[in-house]
Amino acid sequence: MPKKRTKTKSKKIKTKNNNVNKFFFFIAIVCFIFILDRYTKYLSSFIQACFIFCIKQSINYGAAFSLLNNFGWTRILLITIAVFVMFFAAFFYFQNKKFTLIDFGLSLLFAGTLSNVFDRIYYGYVIDFIGFAFWPAFPAFNLADIANLVGVIILIWAIIKKP
Fold it and tell me: Is residue 145 annotated as part of the catalytic site, yes or no?
Protein backbone atom coordinates (compact mmCIF):
# COMPACT_ATOMS: atom_id res chain seq x y z
CA MET A 1 0.00 0.00 0.00
CA PRO A 2 2.69 2.58 0.76
CA LYS A 3 4.13 2.02 -2.71
CA LYS A 4 0.91 3.27 -4.31
CA ARG A 5 0.99 6.43 -2.23
CA THR A 6 4.57 7.04 -3.19
CA LYS A 7 3.75 6.62 -6.87
CA THR A 8 0.73 8.90 -6.56
CA LYS A 9 2.78 11.55 -4.80
CA SER A 10 5.57 11.34 -7.36
CA LYS A 11 3.04 11.75 -10.18
CA LYS A 12 1.63 14.85 -8.51
CA ILE A 13 5.09 16.27 -8.04
CA LYS A 14 5.98 15.46 -11.64
CA THR A 15 2.82 17.21 -12.87
CA LYS A 16 3.63 20.20 -10.69
CA ASN A 17 7.17 20.30 -12.08
CA ASN A 18 5.81 20.16 -15.62
CA ASN A 19 3.55 23.13 -14.89
CA VAL A 20 6.45 25.05 -13.34
CA ASN A 21 8.74 24.20 -16.27
CA LYS A 22 6.05 25.21 -18.75
CA PHE A 23 5.53 28.53 -16.91
CA PHE A 24 9.25 29.29 -16.85
CA PHE A 25 9.60 28.36 -20.53
CA PHE A 26 6.80 30.84 -21.35
CA ILE A 27 8.46 33.58 -19.29
CA ALA A 28 11.87 32.82 -20.84
CA ILE A 29 10.55 33.02 -24.43
CA VAL A 30 8.57 36.20 -23.73
CA CYS A 31 11.51 37.91 -21.99
CA PHE A 32 13.99 36.85 -24.66
CA ILE A 33 11.86 38.10 -27.57
CA PHE A 34 10.89 41.30 -25.73
CA ILE A 35 14.46 42.20 -24.74
CA LEU A 36 15.89 41.28 -28.16
CA ASP A 37 13.23 43.37 -29.91
CA ARG A 38 13.80 46.35 -27.60
CA TYR A 39 17.58 46.11 -28.09
CA THR A 40 17.40 45.84 -31.89
CA LYS A 41 15.01 48.79 -32.05
CA TYR A 42 17.46 50.78 -29.95
CA LEU A 43 20.40 49.79 -32.19
CA SER A 44 18.45 50.67 -35.31
CA SER A 45 18.45 54.31 -34.28
CA PHE A 46 22.25 54.33 -34.77
CA ILE A 47 22.68 52.00 -37.73
CA GLN A 48 21.68 52.31 -41.35
CA ALA A 49 22.77 49.55 -43.69
CA CYS A 50 21.53 47.75 -46.76
CA PHE A 51 22.57 44.44 -48.26
CA ILE A 52 19.84 41.79 -48.48
CA PHE A 53 17.95 43.45 -45.66
CA CYS A 54 17.90 47.19 -45.14
CA ILE A 55 18.14 48.53 -41.62
CA LYS A 56 16.53 51.94 -41.38
CA GLN A 57 14.26 53.02 -38.58
CA SER A 58 10.72 53.99 -39.49
CA ILE A 59 7.61 54.81 -37.50
CA ASN A 60 4.32 52.97 -37.93
CA TYR A 61 1.22 54.61 -36.47
CA GLY A 62 -1.08 52.01 -38.03
CA ALA A 63 -1.44 48.25 -38.07
CA ALA A 64 0.43 45.84 -40.34
CA PHE A 65 1.55 47.49 -43.58
CA SER A 66 0.53 50.86 -42.05
CA LEU A 67 -3.18 50.06 -42.41
CA LEU A 68 -5.47 52.49 -40.56
CA ASN A 69 -2.55 54.91 -40.35
CA ASN A 70 -4.50 58.16 -40.65
CA PHE A 71 -7.25 57.58 -38.09
CA GLY A 72 -7.14 59.02 -34.57
CA TRP A 73 -8.83 56.01 -32.98
CA THR A 74 -6.34 53.49 -34.42
CA ARG A 75 -4.04 53.49 -31.39
CA ILE A 76 -6.82 52.60 -28.92
CA LEU A 77 -8.25 49.95 -31.26
CA LEU A 78 -4.87 48.29 -31.82
CA ILE A 79 -3.98 48.32 -28.12
CA THR A 80 -7.36 46.74 -27.32
CA ILE A 81 -6.90 44.03 -29.96
CA ALA A 82 -3.36 43.36 -28.71
CA VAL A 83 -4.55 42.93 -25.12
CA PHE A 84 -7.17 40.43 -26.28
CA VAL A 85 -4.57 38.53 -28.33
CA MET A 86 -2.21 38.35 -25.34
CA PHE A 87 -5.03 37.25 -23.01
CA PHE A 88 -6.16 34.45 -25.32
CA ALA A 89 -2.59 33.34 -26.09
CA ALA A 90 -1.81 33.06 -22.38
CA PHE A 91 -5.18 31.43 -21.64
CA PHE A 92 -4.74 28.70 -24.25
CA TYR A 93 -1.06 28.24 -23.37
CA PHE A 94 -1.90 27.29 -19.80
CA GLN A 95 -4.88 25.05 -20.66
CA ASN A 96 -2.73 22.04 -21.51
CA LYS A 97 -0.54 20.30 -18.92
CA LYS A 98 2.14 19.12 -21.32
CA PHE A 99 4.16 21.28 -23.67
CA THR A 100 3.23 21.08 -27.36
CA LEU A 101 4.17 22.85 -30.56
CA ILE A 102 1.00 24.92 -30.22
CA ASP A 103 2.34 26.24 -26.92
CA PHE A 104 5.54 27.38 -28.60
CA GLY A 105 3.52 29.25 -31.24
CA LEU A 106 1.36 30.84 -28.55
CA SER A 107 4.40 32.00 -26.58
CA LEU A 108 5.92 33.61 -29.70
CA LEU A 109 2.60 35.29 -30.51
CA PHE A 110 2.32 36.62 -26.95
CA ALA A 111 5.91 37.91 -26.94
CA GLY A 112 5.67 39.69 -30.29
CA THR A 113 2.35 41.26 -29.42
CA LEU A 114 3.64 42.39 -26.01
CA SER A 115 6.66 44.09 -27.55
CA ASN A 116 4.62 45.94 -30.17
CA VAL A 117 1.91 46.97 -27.70
CA PHE A 118 4.65 48.32 -25.44
CA ASP A 119 5.80 50.57 -28.30
CA ARG A 120 2.25 51.65 -29.04
CA ILE A 121 1.55 52.54 -25.39
CA TYR A 122 4.95 54.13 -24.60
CA TYR A 123 5.67 55.96 -27.87
CA GLY A 124 2.27 56.11 -29.55
CA TYR A 125 3.61 54.19 -32.55
CA VAL A 126 5.58 51.03 -33.38
CA ILE A 127 9.23 51.26 -34.36
CA ASP A 128 10.02 49.25 -37.49
CA PHE A 129 13.49 48.96 -38.97
CA ILE A 130 13.89 45.94 -41.26
CA GLY A 131 13.16 46.11 -44.97
CA PHE A 132 14.06 44.16 -48.08
CA ALA A 133 16.79 45.58 -50.36
CA PHE A 134 15.32 43.76 -53.36
CA TRP A 135 11.75 44.98 -52.62
CA PRO A 136 11.92 48.59 -51.39
CA ALA A 137 8.14 49.11 -51.56
CA PHE A 138 7.56 46.37 -48.96
CA PRO A 139 6.73 47.93 -45.57
CA ALA A 140 9.32 47.82 -42.80
CA PHE A 141 8.92 45.40 -39.91
CA ASN A 142 10.69 44.43 -36.67
CA LEU A 143 11.63 41.33 -34.67
CA ALA A 144 8.31 41.36 -32.81
CA ASP A 145 6.52 41.16 -36.15
CA ILE A 146 8.71 38.18 -37.09
CA ALA A 147 7.87 36.48 -33.77
CA ASN A 148 4.15 37.07 -34.45
CA LEU A 149 4.41 35.69 -37.97
CA VAL A 150 6.40 32.61 -36.94
CA GLY A 151 4.02 32.03 -34.02
CA VAL A 152 0.95 32.15 -36.28
CA ILE A 153 2.60 29.87 -38.87
CA ILE A 154 3.46 27.35 -36.13
CA LEU A 155 -0.11 27.52 -34.80
CA ILE A 156 -1.64 26.95 -38.23
CA TRP A 157 0.75 24.12 -39.03
CA ALA A 158 0.23 22.42 -35.64
CA ILE A 159 -3.56 22.70 -35.90
CA ILE A 160 -3.64 21.35 -39.47
CA LYS A 161 -1.19 18.55 -38.63
CA LYS A 162 -3.12 17.52 -35.51
CA PRO A 163 -5.10 14.28 -36.14
Answer: yes
